[in-house]
Amino acid sequence: MSVKIRLARGGAKKRPFYRIVAADSESPRDGRFLENLGTYNPMVEPAAITLKEDRINYWLGVGAQATTTVKNILKKEMAKATPA
């Protein structure tokens, strides 16, 4: 079983809301997942993102692969968290 960290879509038509989840790579996009790792709401300005950083680091540490979109979100949020 390979695990992916990806977005699961929620919300109404034309009003997307996403959960960042750890899921088996073979399960459907909005289907069964292993753990909820955060949320992403692109409809507010700026986009609202909440993350459980310790759990994300755990899943990445045990070999989970983040999708391209989730990698971009994580990179953006981690840059905010660590001041330059």
Q: Summed up, what is this model?
A:
With 84 residues, the chain is an alpha+beta fold. The protein contains two helices and five strands; from the N terminus they run ββββαβα. Helix content is 27%, strand content 39%.
Provide structural commentary.
The protein is of the alpha+beta class and about 80 residues long. The protein has a single domain, classed as Ribosomal protein S16 (S16 Ribosomal Protein, Chain: A, 2-Layer Sandwich), CATH 3.30.1320. About 25% of the residues lie in helices and about 40% in strands. The protein contains 2 helices and 5 strands. It has helices at about 55-60, 70-80; strands spanning about 5-10, 15-25, 35-40, 50, 65. Strand 1 (about 5-10) and strand 2 form a beta hairpin.
Number of helices in the DSSP assignment: 2
The rounded distance between the terminal residues' Cα atoms is 38 Å
Shape: flat
Instruction: Give the neighbour order of strands across the main sheet.
Output: 4-3-2-1-5
Uncertain residue ranges: none
- The arrangement of helices and strands along the chain is EEEEHEH
Assess the beta-strand content as a share of residues. 35-45%
Main pleated sheet: 5 strands, mixed
**How many individual β-strands?**
5
Task: Please give the share of residues in helix.
Answer: 25-40%
How many domains make up the coordinates? 1
